Amino acid sequence: QVQVVESGGGSVQAGGSLRLSCAASGDTACISAMHWYRQVPGKGRDLIASITNSGTTYYVESVKDRFIIFRDNVKNTIYLQMISLKPTDTAVYYCNGDCSTATIPWGQGTQVTVSS
Q: Model confidence at 29, in pLDDT bands (50, 70, 90)?
């Protein structure tokens, strides 16, 4: 089974930067793409960025040009570099992936708080 652990969140002022990490362990060979999501209290989990095994990336419009998703295949880790952070980016950030053999359980997430 694949497990994911997110880290790197914190509290920053508007305009600041953070880099989130998502370490995957277990049978990671089943994964074809990895994604970052975020969730604010009372709302669902929203997909914000994706990266496929071939390196193709996707970003939701609200984070395009501010967030970059990239991966380190040796470390089985994906990252989300976030710049020009806004208070509206405040959320719990989660990662997950598309695994052909099983559903990957959600991790604990990592809290990002952006103050104005």
A: very high
Model confidence pLDDT, tens digit, residues 94-103: 999 999 999 9
Sheet holding 57-59, edge to edge: 10-13, 110-115, 91-99, 31-39, 46-52, 57-59
pLDDT given for residue 49 in this prediction: 98
Given the DSSP bridges, would you call strands 3-7 and 57-59 parallel, antiparallel or unpaired? unpaired
